[in-house]
Design a protein that fits this description.
Radius of gyration: 36 Å
Largest sheet: 3 strands, antiparallel
Strand content: 5-15%
């Protein structure tokens, strides 16, 4: 069976995988669209008419390549993992943060000391918050079962001898 005959047979059987064109419209259906018009096609895809072309409307939020370093002379894109970590903590890329700390350390040692103490204090606050959550979780767990005596009862009922027996072949 030829390719075309096979396609026709699949169409008749209802197994054809793509759309079947059952007519032809000679005029352009998009000719009367104006810039900014939005419509949905037969597949449920939303489109928007732009200046000279059509584009699919994305359901994702418009996000650029990444954040920029906050230093006036840098404006580097925050893409690398070490830049992202430093940007989250300090708002600068890794190299700008290094330069900032070195300038503080050598030019203004008292400000650098205060800066490091402030960073340590912030870290201690987050550690304290973690510890409070941990203590609350342990407290809730103890409220459910304050005195778990299962192990103590099992040991007292088993008549277990607490003597240490040595293997004589191992000690010689």
């Amino acid at each position: 069976m030829g390719k075309n005959t096979q396609k026709v047979q699949e169409m008749l059987d209802g197994n054809f995988k793509s759309k079947i064109q059952s007519g032809y419209v000679s005029e352009d259906v998009h000719a009367n669209r104006k810039v900014g018009d939005k419509w949905t096609d037969s597949d449920g895809v939303e489109w928007e008419q732009k200046q000279g072309y059509r584009s699919k409307v994305s359901k994702l939020a418009a996000k650029g390549l990444g954040d920029n370093c906050s230093m006036e002379d840098c404006k580097k894109l925050i893409i690398k993992p070490w830049d992202k970590d430093t940007y989250k903590a300090d708002g600068r890329c890794y190299h700008c943060q290094l330069n900032y700390e070195l300038d503080l350390q050598f030019d203004k040692p008292i400000r650098w000391f205060a800066y490091r103490r402030l960073k340590d204090f912030r870290n201690m606050k987050s550690i304290e918050k973690d510890m409070e959550q941990w203590v609350e979780a342990i407290t809730e767990e103890r409220k459910e079962n304050p005195f778990d005596e299962k192990l103590a009862n099992a040991l007292s009922n088993a008549n277990i001898s607490m003597d240490i027996s040595k293997n004589k072949t191992m000690t010689n």
